[in-house]
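User: quick one, fold this
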Amino acid sequence: MAEEILQLDIKGILKARIPKEKLRWIPSFLISGVEKLIRQKELNEILRATLPSEGSEFSRRVLDYLDINVEVEGLQNLKDGARYMFASNHPLGGLDGIALITVLGKKYGDDNIRFLVNDLLMNVLPLKGLFLPVNKFGKQAREYAGIINEKINSDCQIFQFPAGLCSRLQRGGKIEDLEWQKSFVAKAIESQRDIVPVYFEGRNSMKFYRTAKWRKKLGIKFNFEQILLPSELCKARGSRFRIIFGKPIPWQELKSSSLSPKVLADRIRSEAYALASPSCSGGSEM
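Assistant:
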């Protein structure tokens, strides 16, 4: 039964969400085109290969299935017993989160890590237990706000991508995050957590970045390039990525700073990208 629930079915989703009289106007070739665009068949193969695992075990199996190697550096910077707010760049929009869940789950255990995510990711059932949704509305917003505050004030390690969206092509040809939101700095100070800047080395295809660039040029607000992210995950088969954990920034230092949370967020973002320089220290491979 669980396997049925976890299978992605675009046609079924449309049937459930669109009235029958309107659905008949959507040509079948268009639905098939979307299924191919997001690589529905391959995604379902991944789900079948990883069931019934959950949490970091599921993430690890996804990496294994895709033959992805992750080199990790800087874990020696993390002290036992410390409470951290991890803040990372977001180059891939999916696979980077899967890799980081694998790494942090192995180090701390699934019960001791939580990822602040867009509420849409709560539909990724094998990882739902590790996620804290940050943009719910109404009654659910109040309910989840209490859960988030409880976890942030607990001994759990908290992780987030402060940019929200994954990296985009910037002026000058650089591929970098959008502006980092300042809330992670305020939350770290409030909960007395040191912030660990993290750099994830990786990139999507140029097709993804060009699509995002043209969408913006045309003045289209809806980020339809996001529909390409499942395809980007599948295309990453056989890739090698590098994750670097920087030195923790004491919350006391942030609290006593005369700089605003916005400026501090910008500086921490810069520190994360500065980790990209070749490392002299040896890393471990997963």
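User: anything notable?
Assistant: The two ends are 32 Å apart (CA to CA).
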